[in-house]
Every structure is written in C-alpha cells, then in structure tokens.
Model the fold of this input.
Amino acid sequence: MAETSNRHDAWQAGDSYEQYMGRWSRRVAPRFLDWLGAPAGLDWLDVGAGTGALSSEVLARCAPRSLLAIDPSDGFLEKARASLAGERVELRVGDAQALPAEARSRDVVVSGLVLNFVPDKEQALAEMKRVARRGARLGFYVWDYPGGGIEFMRAFWSAAIALDPAALDLGEGRRFPFCTAEGLTELAARAGLRSVECRAIEVPTVFADFEDYWAPFTFGTGPAPGYCASLAPDARERLRARLESSVPRAADGSIPMKARAWALKTTLP
Done:
C-alpha cells in the first residue's frame, strides 16, 4: 500500500490539522517563497491550500494581484477563510487532478505538502501546467517522509512499530517513497517539467512539553493520529508511555526536534 490512502487517513478537521502539522507547515512556507522568488503583482494559484499556511504567506510576502486557493476539504477551507479574507482572494473546493481554473490564467502555481496525497500525481502536475501562463513559475514541496525528515513523526512510528509490528505499513515513509530529491525530480521529468531545481528546507519543531507533543496524535487528523485514535485505550496508553520515556528533552522540559521538506521549482517555457 505504498502510495494509496488507507483507513487511518483523515484530513477534514482544520483545527486538529493546525495543531498537528499546520503550525510547522507555516514555518516552511516563507522559506519556500523566498526561494521561489516570484515578483509582485502576479496571479497565483495554491493547489491543496489546506488551512491556508502557504496562501497566507503569499499574501503577506508576495503582493499578488490575485490568489486562487483550491482544496477538496470544506473543513480545511473554512479554517483558511479566517486568514485569507480579502478581495484579492478566492477559495474554491476542487481536485488537484481537475483544477477548477481556466487554462493559462495563472502566473505562479504552487502546492505545499499535498502532492503525496494525490492519487495521480502526474495528472496533477499536468493540470498545474495547463492553468499556468507561458513563463509562469511552478513549485511544490513535500515532507521528507522516507528520510525520516519529520523527527516527531519518526519517533511516533518507531514507538508504534515496536509495540505493534503491523504499524510498519502505515507510516508515511513506507507509503510515500517518492518524497525524496530523486523521486521529485523523476516525477517532474515524467510530467514534462524541464530545468528543475530541488532543495531541502529544514525548520525547527520545538514542543513546549510532552503534552504539547502527544495531544495532536490523539485528534485523529492524519495517518499517525488516525492510527493512534484507532487504538484501544490500554494500547494507546502503552504507546504514550513508550514515547514519553524516549523523546529528547531540553533542560527546560521542551522537546526539540526538526522537520525537513523537499522543494522543487521550475519556470515554464
């Protein structure tokens, strides 16, 4: 089940996602945009906008003429509306594989931390190319799942697998093997993207204490929290205890970790 959705995926609750991944994805977005280097006054499209992490930074940093944000989840878009209000912004429910946007209507097309969840990734990239104008910038990024780049997630699955070997097949590293520099470059080539650049983006993920670390895993939004929420209470408590005794601690009781994403960009001919 390398790249298919499984019974533990759940991506509808915007507030739960914010506490689990959104707060960290908001740290990646500005670094990606600085690297993308798009000038002001352009028409943007954010594919898989989620709760608005990338779109919010586009508005704050890039002075777009317009921004169209698309996501399949009503729950995520409802959360995003709180930070994406304004006459330059339009939010639409839509599928990355059939974008609700006109051909050659966007100067910049971006996607943050979503492509691994799209069943037909080449079709999604074909759609991104379709809506892009000549000379448009196209860029996307995904978490480094295979390389264990999200340390708090790697710690969770290591503990889970030690207690339940069947959890091995549920982790994102096993399910999304293409989320590497080589994998993204090969995907781009299959989609007809040329002259691509790929780089790592790393951000700190520091948890105030163990409760700050543990609580988001109990909310059920995402593969790891979905797995955690599916456990019987005694099994969940064993997992909690194993993690509490194994995660790194700073002198003040915080839990310092890091998260790494792989980003790719190109300029279309």
The two ends are 36 Å apart (CA to CA). The CA atoms of residues 20 and 215 lie 8 Å apart. Strands lie at 43-47, 66-71, 89-93, 106-112, 132-143, 197-207, 255-267. Confidence is low (pLDDT under 50) at residues 1-14.
